[in-house]
Amino acid sequence: MSSTIPLITTSEFSCSACQKIFKKQSGLSRHLTIVKKYNIPRNNLDNLSETNNKNFKNILVYLIHCKLPNGFKKGGRQLVSLACTEHQFFDIFKGYIHHHSNKNIYKCIFRGTIGYQTLSEILNNPLWG
Ligand SMILES: [Zn+2]
Known about the structure:
Elements: E1 13-14, E2 21-22, H1 25-38, H2 50-67, H3 86-93, E3 97-100, E4 106-108, H4 112-122
Antiparallel strand pairs: 1-2, 3-4
The structure holds zinc ion.
């Protein structure tokens, strides 16, 4: 009588931000390490003035509103892109950058309710949607 022990298929590891799936824990760790590096400024950048950031945030809120006329209820993926200086982007989104291409394109990913709240905190605008 032989009993076969079922192979336990370990659940896959996925990144909570971008939903990328990794077969191993180490793969996910590596991914998160890389993401962490994106959020460290390469040069010693000074903080930008409050007014400068405020204006930039207002533009962003406006752009997001245009992209999402029905608020976030519609779901799906929305891409809001904006050309700005690296410095400016960093000052506002440091800690949330999730992708950096060699063409100097940064991506932040905000998902679901938590993403919504995070964004409103970053942009100091709780009233949208
Ligand atoms: Zn990810």
